[in-house]
Every structure is written in structure tokens, then in C-alpha cells.
Specification:
alpha+beta; three-stranded antiparallel beta sheet
Length: 259
């Protein structure tokens, strides 16, 4: 291709392969820096200036506590940030509690408004879980379905918020190691085998027939089964502690006083 030069040539330089490689490297670095900066600028983080959308997605949970006459229904609504992108994220935006029981109406309204304000403020809101689960009722707690001890109604609300945050990926529950799972399975099998042997007891009825008693293993809502004689584990707050070989052992988390 011919190029017409209108000005006087004062000098020239030959472009070497090293010069081309150096120029290409500088261009690649500049492009990488630009691409690294752009997504960060486009990612929307949760903050109090975000307006509530017309429609929110959420879940409703039921609480049936012996402390209140009627069931309570907890609704947690989430806002979706960066929808349709690789940075899509669900964050809790508001919480509502509905019940026929009016005795707790004041503190329920206050609690839900404060929690919703904290959710909309942004940042790390997972601290609410530990704060709520640490609340104790001076009248005493109760066991919910599955044998899990709840020190108060507020603590069960905290457990529900924790479950919801786990479901949307805000809290990650550390998984048990394969060795720990194998240990728990071994303990459960040994206890069930021992219970089966101890169940073959004859009582010598008047008609000469043998009567057999057997300890029934209760099945909880999450599929776990624990004997009714089990006591509460202070580590996982579940009624799953049994005496095995003279040592208290939890059939749910594997905790043992004997190590």
C-alpha cells in the first residue's frame, strides 16, 4: 500500500519484534486492569439507599411453641442484587411475624421493625443470629420438634433466621469430616445393637407366656432418630446423648465426655 508523505523526513526507526512484544504486553496489562476495575464498579452492594422493589421473593416458616397458644408464622423476604449476572446475590430485606396471639404483639412489632432496618442497612447482618439465639427466657426454655432445645421464643426466631440465611448462601454450615460421620454412624449402630439385645427380657407372665420390651427409637423431623431416654447435648442442643460403655455420647454430633 502506497503512503504519500507531505512533510520532510527528519529521521526514521525500524520496529523490531522486541518492540512489538513490549507494546503488546503493555496493552494486555492495561486491558486486564480495566476489566478488573469495571465489574467492581458495576457490582451493587446492599445499602440503605436501595429502594424496595414492587415484588420480593421470600419464605414463610411456622413456629409452634408451648410458650404461646397459637402458632406464629415468620416471613422473610429477600432482595436480589445484580440479577442475571455472575454476581447475583440474595440478601434478607424485611421480616414479618403473624399470629393470633396478641400477648406478644408489642415486642414482635418492635423486633421485626428493628431487624428489617438492620437488613436494609447492609453489611454483615449474620451477627443477628448469634445475638438472638443467646436470649434466655427466665421461665425456662422448651424442646421443639426433633429434640432441639430452645432457650426462648426469640432464640427460635434466631434459629429460623439462621436456617434462612443458610438457604440463600449467606451463612455456610461447616460440614462434618468423613471420619466424624463414620464415628457417629458407628456409635449409633453400636447403641442400636445393644438396645436390641437388652430388649429381649422375659417377665414371666401368669399364663407362662414371655413378654418382651423394646426401646423405641424416635424419628425426628429431619430424619435423625434418637431414643426417648436420651438427654440434651450441651454442644448441639439436641436430645441425643446416651450412655455407652459408661460414657455420655451424643448420637447427633459425636461429642463424648471421654474424648
Amino acid at each position: 500500500m502506497a503512503v504519500k508523505i507531505d512533510k520532510k523526513i527528519k529521521g526514521y526507526a525500524v520496529v523490531t519484534p522486541e518492540d512489538k512484544a513490549r507494546e503488546a504486553k503493555a496493552e494486555a496489562v492495561a486491558r486486564a486492569t480495566l476489566e478488573a476495575e469495571l465489574p467492581t464498579a458495576d457490582v451493587i452492594q446492599m445499602h440503605e439507599r436501595i429502594e424496595r422493589p414492587e415484588v420480593l421473593i421470600g419464605s414463610t416458616y411456622k413456629i409452634k411453641s408451648p410458650l404461646v397458644e397459637h402458632a406464629m408464622y415468620v416471613t422473610l423476604n429477600d432482595i436480589v442484587l445484580n440479577a442475571g449476572t455472575e454476581h447475583e446475590l440474595r440478601r434478607p430485606f424485611e421480616i414479618f411475624i403473624n399470629s393470633k396471639s396478641m400477648e406478644h404483639f408489642q415486642w414482635i412489632v418492635a423486633l421485626t421493625r428493628i431487624m428489617s432496618a438492620v437488613f436494609r442497612k447492609g453489611g454483615d447482618v449474620t451477627f443477628l443470629v448469634e445475638e438472638m439465639k443467646a436470649v434466655f427466657d427466665p421461665r425456662g426454655g422448651y424442646f421443639k420438634a426433633g429434640g432441639v432445645y430452645m432457650p426462648s421464643l426469640v432464640a427460635e426466631l434466631g434459629a429460623i433466621v439462621e436456617d434462612h440465611m443458610k438457604s440463600i448462601g449467606l451463612i455456610h454450615d461447616p460440614d462434618m469430616s468423613p471420619a466424624q460421620r463414620a464415628l457417629i454412624a458407628e456409635k449409633r449402630a453400636a447403641y442400636e445393637q445393644r438396645s436390641k439385645k437388652n430388649s429381649d427380657v422375659s417377665f414371666g407372665a401368669a399364663n407362662g407366656a414371655d413378654a418382651r420390651t423394646e426401646e423405641v427409637i424416635e424419628v425426628t423431623g429431619d430424619g435423625a432418630s434418637f431414643p426417648p431416654s436420651a438427654t440434651m447435648c450441651h454442644k448441639c442442643s439436641t436430645k441425643a446423648v446416651v450412655i455407652m460403655d459408661g460414657c455420655a455420647t451424643c448420637l447427633n454430633c459425636g461429642y463424648s465426655k471421654c474424648g
